[in-house]
Design goal:
Blueprint (H helix, E strand, L loop, with lengths): L1 H19 L3 H18 L4 H13 L4 H17 L5 H13 L9 H14 L11 E5 L4 E4 L9 E7 L4 H16 L4 E7 L4 H10 L6 E5 L7 H5 L6 E5 L5 E4 L3 H14 L7 H11 L8 H14 L6 H16 L4 H15 L9 H18 L12 E7 L4 E7 L7 E7 L4 H15 L8 H8 L1 E7 H7 L1 H10 L7 E6 L4 E4 L5
């Protein structure tokens, strides 16, 4: 900014000289200084550049000098290829030229400037995208950027005409880009003409990527030309999830630069300690662990408050964090709730998890967990495999090798455990205490009957791994033994009633 101030002071001298001596030499000197001023401001935001230009114009007291400076600024930003420069040109017109404070050199120049401002004012960089009500190829109406728009993602808005040679080149380049790289973005291609036959042919042969939503407005009722400055085609915009225009006047190459930047900046990290502490706090009220419904409710709440409200990024962050959190927990509520969360929020077809980064961090991880959770689900018949173990009933204990679907009780509890595990030992102890009620005269008759209907089958996974590797592989392929103890309950027919349960 200090350099900008020095240049401004130097420019002030040139302005003063031009005011006293309006010859070609003074004109050339002033033009050079203005050029230095533009160069010094080029890395500032359009708003800052507009403020600086206002300051410069206001500093010129002589009307001729003010006209020269104002029009030089206007033309510089009008003709600049830098995205955002048109913001300054339109601002200068609206504040200085359109209000009559500075006159254009001719009425035709003024008319051109007015048309330019009218057709660009509402679609400038940083402005909110104007709502459009367009027709789809099927004849349905689709509203974009309206008050009920809940897309929540980045969107490309591409206007083209079938008779435009530049459009055909740009369409082919855009089609190639989209088919090569899968960006987390929605693409809306708007045909600016009214010939249905030409449009259908164009969509089939030129702009045919499956990601593209094709729209048109043959009756021009949406006023898209004025809203988005579609005086000529092609015309391309990039709109952020909050509906703000972050790219305009784009070609495919510049669009790729923006999308690459978005893809890099949109990479999220999941499973942080902060998110883990958050979910610990949510479930802390339940001393024995949350129920399945508790876990499902949080999954639904995350979706309602983020994705359903149009915020895809917040949904990705929270749903991904929840996935990682639940995957690290053990217990029936967590595991069965995790299965629901994966099916509804991760592997559902919502168009959310589209980046390569999320494919690795979220989708692949969820698929791996889903494979484990799909083993011996409640309601299915337990895998019929003969397993050695210790069968406990309320009356006796015996070593046996028996099929898991033929344990003999009305309710059968199977405990897969590992030696040296304190939790495993506690669960085994709890199961024996439950069975002891079958012959305990101090409890009610109903409690004794309930205990007598239960058989407990304890399976030492360590011993099977040592003595029968083939059987061990069968068990690992059939049950989620990633964390022990793993406890599962079946009925008399071998149908699974519960799994991942705890007796504590």
């Amino acid at each position: 900014m200090k350099r900008l101030l020095l240049i401004f002071l130097s420019l002030s001298v040139a302005v003063s000289t031009f005011a006293r001596q309006t010859d070609s030499l003074a004109l050339a000197s002033l033009g050079v200084k203005l050029g230095e001023y533009y160069e010094a401001m080029k890395y500032e935001s359009p708003d800052v550049q507009a403020q600086e230009c206002d300051f410069l114009i206001e500093s010129t007291a002589d009307s001729i000098v003010r006209q020269y400076v104002t029009l030089d600024i206007y033309n510089h930003y009008l003709e600049s290829p830098v995205m955002g420069a048109e913001n300054v040109a339109v601002h200068v017109f609206d504040r200085w030229i359109g209000t009559g404070k500075v006159r254009m050199r001719s009425n035709s120049d003024y008319l051109k400037a007015q048309v330019h401002a009218d057709f660009n004012r509402r679609s400038l960089l940083g402005k909110r995208a104007q709502p459009l009500l367009m027709q789809t190829a099927e004849g349905d109406l689709l509203e974009l950027f309206g008050k009920d728009d809940a897309s929540g993602g980045f969107r490309i808005l591409y206007f083209y005409d079938t008779d435009c040679a530049r459009c055909k080149v740009e369409s082919l380049l855009l089609n190639s880009l989209l088919s090569t790289i899968e960006y987390p973005v929605e693409i809306y291609a708007v045909y600016a003409g009214d010939n249905r036959e030409n449009w259908d042919s164009y969509v089939s042969n030129v702009l045919n990527d499956r990601q593209i939503v094709h729209l048109w407005d043959p009756e021009l009722v949406s006023d898209f030309q004025r809203k988005y400055g579609v005086i000529k085609t092609p015309r391309m915009f990039l709109i952020a999830p909050d509906g703000i225009i972050i790219g305009r006047g784009l070609d495919t190459e510049s669009l790729k630069v923006l999308l690459d930047g978005i893809s890099r900046s949109d990479e999220l990290t999941y499973g942080s300690q902060e998110s883990s502490d958050l979910f610990d706090g949510i479930f802390s009220a339940s001393t024995s662990g949350p129920s399945v419904d508790d876990v499902k409710d949080i999954a639904d709440y995350i979706r309602k408050r983020t994705l359903d409200a149009g915020d895809k990024r917040a949904f990705r962050q929270m749903a991904g964090d929840y996935l990682y959190y639940l995957s690290m927990q053990n217990g029936e509520g967590y595991k069965e709730g995790l299965k629901y969360h994966i099916e509804k929020n991760i592997l559902s077809d919502d168009g959310v998890w589209t980046s390569q980064d999320d494919s690795l961090k979220v989708i692949e991880y969820a698929l791996m967990i889903s494979d484990m959770l799909s083993l011996n689900v409640p309601g299915s018949r337990i895998t019929s495999v003969e397993v050695p173990g210790v069968l406990h009933t309320w009356r006796k204990v015996r070593q046996t090798v028996t099929p898991l679907d033929m344990l003999g009780g009305e309710n059968n509890i199977i405990i897969f455990y590992t030696e040296g595990c304190q939790v495993c030992a506690a669960e085994k102890e709890a199961s024996l205490a439950m069975l002891s009620a079958g012959k305990d005269r101090s409890v009610t008759r109903a409690e004794r009957r309930k205990a007598r209907k239960v058989n407990v089958f304890m399976v030492n996974v360590d011993r099977i791994m040592e003595t029968d590797p083939r059987l061990a592989m069968t068990l690992l392929d059939s049950f989620d033994l990633s964390v022990l103890p793993f406890i599962i309950m079946t009925d008399s027919q071998g149908r699974i009633l519960r799994r991942y349960m705890s007796l504590l």
